[in-house]
Amino acid sequence: MPEIGSEHRTAMGIQLLQGTAGMRFRPVLRRMETDLIQALAMFFFSNLKQFMTDSEWVQITGKGGEVKPVQITPEQIQAKVFFIPTGISE
Length: 90
What we know:
The chain is α+β, with helices and mostly antiparallel strands. The chain has one domain. The chain has one helix spanning 11-51; strands spanning 56-61, 67-72.
């Protein structure tokens, strides 16, 4: 058994400390996802809808996590969308 206070010197102890720190930051990161990243994605999508002239290839992530390239035209992009950022708070 390790000495008291030396838990942070082992790989398991470091993982435990990182996990604890991650739990403290989770609400901050989730708020950053919704307030910053989601708003920024909507801003760029709005600009794309307004100024896109040529068709472009984009990557779409499906429900199963599979990524596939899709070519879209300016006429196809005139839709309502809702961005759900993932990855930071997970």
